[in-house]
Amino acid sequence: MAGERGASASDPPTQQTSLDEEAPLLTSRSSGFSGLEASPTGHNAGTGGVASKAAAADSDGGGGGGCPSPAAFARELTEQAHLAGPLALNLIANYSLNIVSLSFVGKLGDTSQLAAAALGTSLSAMSGKIPLMGLCGAVDTLASQASGAGQPVGIIFQRATLFLMLHCLPIAAAFVSLPALLAALGQPAEVCALVRAYLLALLPNLFIDAVARPLNRILVAQRMTQPQMAVGLVVAVQHVAACWLCVHRLGMGYLGAAVASVWSNVLSLALLVGWVAAAGLGERVWGRPSREAFTGWRQFAGLAYASAAMKCIESWSFSLMNILSGWLPNAAQSVAAISVAFNLYGILFMGFSAFAMAASTRVGNSLGAGSASGARLAALGAALAAPVIWIFVAFVLTWPPSQAALLSLFTNGTDEVLLQRMRSLLYLVVVLELFDGAQTILSGIIGGVGKQKRGSLINVLAYWLCAVPVACLLGFWAKQGVVGFYSGMCLGPAIQTFAYLALILRLHWGAEADAAMQRVAAAT
């Protein structure tokens, strides 16, 4: 899931500055929208205007124009960085919540409770957070294109919230049954009981996510990212106090970490809703309640299920490697090494995720505006941002001083065998980040266009048919352990990258602008 804030909520003047910078959706900053003109009401003059613009964009043969000028390219990269910067900070802040929670549980000194909290957190993400995050991919497509077309997006928010709430019911049932599955797989009964209690304590997060995720995506689709950053940072800071209060002061033990997590998510949603209401953006963000929210579900479901498949296939494949590491020789060191590598990987991956969201927004906005050339420019800018981000990530992971500093966060430096395994994994993480970062940004482009169905088929090939089998062969049969797992998993993102790139290069941008016009008309 994830899957995800300007000044503090207590600082109205700074908030107003953020609002003034972000609220004018159709401003001169957005140079990629070459054909976008706002009507006096703040919206385009209906889909007919979009149709004419799409036709104009299509007149160049559908390629979206010739080679963009350096100035236009620089403006596009600046716009994407303007969106991605706050998003990256917000994602890192949200990612830190689980790390803080587990650190407080770890200080209790009970290994069983720490194992239960860690396992419960992973299971809740795999069975709840990741699917909901994937289902929200439909909002990325529909809201960004509708926003670019100048159409209201409130009905999309309402439809998405209802859709996700409905899916929370079977997910909640899975939460209750997962501990029984763990017991059947041989996990100790004590750990299973602890995991069950932890999952039940985390259960409210599902329903909070069903509202918070569509709200965040609607804001991003309208190029508002400052408030999410501010709220994320505020919540991350207070989460330390919340964990201390629940775990230690109130004596809840390991369950206090789950309660603190729920509280922090409630606070995050409340602050964001409060900001939207105080800024007078309610009509623009969630709109007025409408019966139309109960219509258009077939279109929404088609995009949502394909997006969820893309996300789940990829995320579950990597999570499987963590589980399989428990069957390796020296399992404790193997699990520790791959867990540390996975956490470092996740933190540094946020830059790619943020640019993927920015790319989805920029491409979708441009297509909704009927600007094939703008969409093509946005896609090109996002694709070329990937290697730039990777160079920074590679430097952090391979430069000896920074590498040592990162490893010191997770070890005391006395287990040389563990340190050597971690160093070996970090070099593999560098390779993995190159391809996985590139495919993540490219998947953002695919989401902005609305090609999630093809993306899900590519992911089946990349992971279930190639990467996971190869990783298992290298890890077990070739006896390369966790290094074999990560080496094999590099194949998945590599296939994704080249397949996504081929898909994007074959796009007929003028035709995609026409398709966006029809999609927006059906969605709004």
Automatic annotation (TrEMBL):
In this chain, the stretch annotated as Disordered covers 1-67
Q: Which GO terms describe its molecular function?
A: antiporter activity; xenobiotic transmembrane transporter activity
Which keywords annotate this record? Answer: Membrane, Transmembrane, Transmembrane helix
Q: Which portions of the chain have biased composition (kind: Low complexity)?
A: 50-59
Q: Which residues form the signal peptide?
A: none
GO terms for cellular component? membrane
Q: Where in the cell is it found?
A: Membrane
GO terms of biological process kind: xenobiotic detoxification by transmembrane export across the plasma membrane
InterPro entries documented for this protein: MATE_euk, MATE_fam
Q: What is this protein called?
A: Protein DETOXIFICATION
Please give the organism: Micractinium conductrix
Source taxonomy lineage? Eukaryota, Viridiplantae, Chlorophyta, core chlorophytes, Trebouxiophyceae
